[in-house]
Write a structure and sequence with these properties.
Layout: H1 2-5, H2 13-16, E1 28-34, E2 48-49, E3 52-60, H3 73-82, H4 89-97, H5 99-102, E4 107-108, E5 115-116, H6 118-127
Antiparallel strand pairs: 1-3, 2-3, 4-5
């Protein structure tokens, strides 16, 4: 648990997206610390490390007796940074919390149930 709440190191977006990615290609749990809370997110009582607030914990499970999750920790974290809201709960939540600031609400695209913030909204999230 200490590895999540008091990590030895926090990685930046550019470090995560570099090759090779410093995050292990393993299954497990990861923590996401924010320099600023998105939108009106309350942070009282949240854990703070190096002036950053822990607001999200994600998993990439290894299920005993079953196939591993399709994505390891490295792939999941990179997905949060550069894919769209449909494939990332963190990204979808951030986009919703930042809708007023971005001007790009979550929308259904195509003929199915797929939802994103449109191309410009996803670009806004890439930069936020």
């Amino acid at each position: 648990m200490t590895e999540l709440t008091n990590p030895d190191r926090l990685y930046s977006r550019s470090e995560i997206l570099s090759n090779p990615c410093p995050v292990p290609k393993a299954w497990g749990v990861y923590a996401w610390f924010f320099s600023q809370a998105p939108g009106v997110t309350p942070t009282d009582g949240c854990l703070v490390h190096d002036s950053k607030t822990l607001l999200y914990i994600g998993i990439s499970p290894d299920k005993p007796g079953k196939p591993n999750s399709k994505s390891n920790i490295s792939e999941r974290i990179r997905c949060h940074y550069n894919h769209n809201a449909e494939g990332s709960t963190l990204r979808k939540t951030l986009g919703i919390l930042l809708t007023e600031k971005s001007g790009y609400p979550l929308r259904r695209v195509g003929s199915g149930n797929r939802k994103t913030f449109t191309n410009l909204g996803e670009q806004f999230l890439d930069q936020w």
